[in-house]
Structures are given as C-alpha cells and as structure tokens.
Structures
1.
Amino acid sequence: MTDALLGRFPTHIVVDSSIWDVSKWWDQGGHHHTWPPRRQIQRWCGHEVRALLAEVSAVFPRSRVAFRTAPVTAWQSPTKMNAGQDAPTIEVMTECIWNHTTRASPASPPRLYGAYDMIPYHELVDRLIAEECNNGQVRGACVGRVWGDGRHPGPKAMGLYTDALLQWIAHPDAALYPF
C-alpha cells in the first residue's frame, strides 16, 4: 500500500506506541490500581514492542526501523485528565526499553533487542528540561518552554528530535547521543 501511495517503500520508519499504550491501560481500569502499572510495562517492553517492531519490519523489509523513546510529560501524577500519562510512568517505560538494548561495542549505537535503532527523544527532552527548568523543576514558565500543553513537546524539543532524525538518516551507524 505504501509503495502505491508514495511510489516506493520508505527508507526509514520510526515507531513508538508508549503514550497510546499508557492511555489504554488507564482506560482499562488502571486508575483503580497501583500506578505506574509495572506488570503491563514489563509485558509491553518485553513482548509487545518487540512484536510491533517485527511486524513493521516484515511489512517494510527494505526500510530501516527505529524505536523512539517517549518524551516525558509535565505531569507528575496520573489523573483522568492526562489518562495516566505522567512523568514517572514514562520514566519506568523508558528504563524498561533501555534494559532491552545491547551494543556491539562501546562505541557503537545501542540496538533494541539487538536489531533495531534507537531514537532518544526522551533523553533529548530530559536534557532540555535540565537546561530550561531550574535544575529540572517542572513548573510555571518551564512548562511553556518545554511543552506546548504539558503533553506534547514544544518547538525546542521538536527541533532536537528533528536533528536526531536527520542525523540517524545521514549517519545510521553513529551514536546519536552520549547517554
């Protein structure tokens, strides 16, 4: 289908389902349980993300596939308004994903499940928070400098993400980050 729409297959594909999955867990009754939902997060990063990436790779066998870590939100606790998309939950999810990466050598970029590239959006936003938010204190004017609405990263964060994507496309075997 993509070949018919674009005239060719995409060369690069970035995948991330983190925020959607958190909202699904919340809607399925997560707000009645301990949060963050560690059991669901372990299943997600151990099996569901791997299956999603394998499916994308099977559908687009000529495309380079990467997983994008989810940037944190400005919210520090889960609520109905944010559908459980609070910073502590995103942190646990990101840590779980990084625990499934390996490196061929110390100088090589990390590979998720030994097979997929990583786009460090979460880490780029964390760095921006450290720079913009008085030692990481997420409140007041800081929220407007990092996020557009508390959930979606604003222009500075999007610029960092775009730079990372362009670096990944231009230099696919270079480490995008010193993390």
2.
Amino acid sequence: MPTNHDIAVRLFLQLSVILLTCQISSRVFHYLGQTRVVSEMIAGVLLGPSFLGLIAPDAQEFLFPKTLTLALGGSTIDIIHPSMTILFGLSQLGLVLYMFLIGLQFNVGPLLPGLPRPLQRRGGARRPTDRLRQADHRALD
C-alpha cells in the first residue's frame, strides 16, 4: 500500500506532466492557428492510452496507474489507484469552476425578447424591491 507521501509525490508528478504538456501543446498549436482549448484537448489525447499508452505503455502506466494490487492474507485484490481517484476529483472540480466562469460570461440579453413576458425577468422571479415600488405607487395614488 502506498503511503500518503507516495500518493502526493505521484499526484504532483501527474499534475506537472499535465500542465507542462498543456503549455507545450498550447504554444505549438497557437503557432498553427488553434485555440488553447483545442490544444489542451490534444494534450489530453497525447497523454492518454491512445498515444502515450501506444508508444510508451510503461511510462503511461507509471504516470497514470489504473489499479493498485493489495495483498490481504493469502489473496490479492485490485482497487482503483488512489492517485487516480484524487486526480479525478481535481478534474471534476476544475470542470465545475470552468463551467461557472463560462456562466458568468453568458449574456442572456439576446434570448429575452423571444421568451414569454413572465419569464423575461430572469426566470420569472420578481425582486422584492419591485413589490415595494408597486406598494409605494398605490399608496401615492
């Protein structure tokens, strides 16, 4: 069983290789006229079993091990490697943060004219200040 130190070292090695590959592919594909997102997807293919696993399967298995074999008593059991579980969690967190940033930049203005009137107020919800304003106008009339 790998220690916490072993898992942390492997995780930082994985992250370093991923970030370095993304930087190199970003510069190369920027020169070829591709966007950063496309170059990062290509970097993922280069590090995966389709490329690295094909030309250097031992290096790919060392960097991104799928399973860990544990010996319990006289039997063995295969589990998902802990570093891959942590890397998966970090990748999901990165995806959520990326989608959040995309959502912040999304402009709903062009979509509003085509919606029914009640839905044009950001999901149909009225702001509390709107109700207060209506009550003030009624009181003044």
3.
Amino acid sequence: MPKVNLVDYAGREQAYVKHRLLAEYLPPLAYKVGSAWDSIVYVDAFSGPWKTNCADLADSSFAVAIDTLRNAQAGLREKGKNRRIDCILIEEDKKAFKQLQTFAASQIAPSFGCACSLWFRFRPSTSSLRRTHQIHSSLSFSILKVGRTFLCGR
C-alpha cells in the first residue's frame, strides 16, 4: 500500500484500518490460494463505494483489494504460476452500485480476469456465494470467509 496521508481518512478511520488489513493480509492469502488452485475469486459482499475522497475511487476498499491482487498475481506469475483472478463486487444501494459498475468495467483486462459488480441484496453465506458465482462459472471452488469478504480458489 502506498504511503497514506491520514488526513484523507478523517472521519473514516475504519476505512484506513480495513485498507491496511487488505494490504498486509491479502497478498499472503492470495499466494497461498494461488499456489493450490488455478484461479482466485475475490468477493466483496458490501462494496460501496462509501465516503471516498478520490474521484477515481482509489481510496475505496475494492480498489485497494484489486490493486493488491494485481500485485500478487504478478508475483505468482514470476514464480511460474499464471493464475486468473476474478473479482465479484456486490452492492445493493443503487447509487453506489452505479459508481461500482463503472469502476468494475474499467478494471477488466485479459491479464487480470474480470471485475464484476452485481446488484442485489446479498445474504453472506457460502451457499449464496456458490449460487452467485454460478452466474459466472460452472467450475467448482473452495471458499474462505473472513467477515464480509470471501476469497475462493477454483
């Protein structure tokens, strides 16, 4: 995670903590999943964006996660593991969803896989996640749930 100006997080200190957690813990987790499975699926069940200060949403949790996953993917590639990464970003608030959808569309790249945004009321459970992911793939996968964020290998 690049050097952060804490002034940008005034009034949203919890976002800073989440971003630090993503930056510190997501890379080793992605390396472990990427070493065992052919692809990684990252799911953010309540994506937002919420109270971002950057027009490009770079200070949102999903942008931090995607940037972190891109770096982990590059590291895996250097180790001879060419892994596909899919990001499923879910939001039920229609206004936030429109911003999320625009952002997700800008992130699609052949080297990264697909960033998807879905609009519906998400029930955070592994069974609802399996049904959600079937929209995008018929492959089976394993799920690791951490709070409202899921990391899957398939």
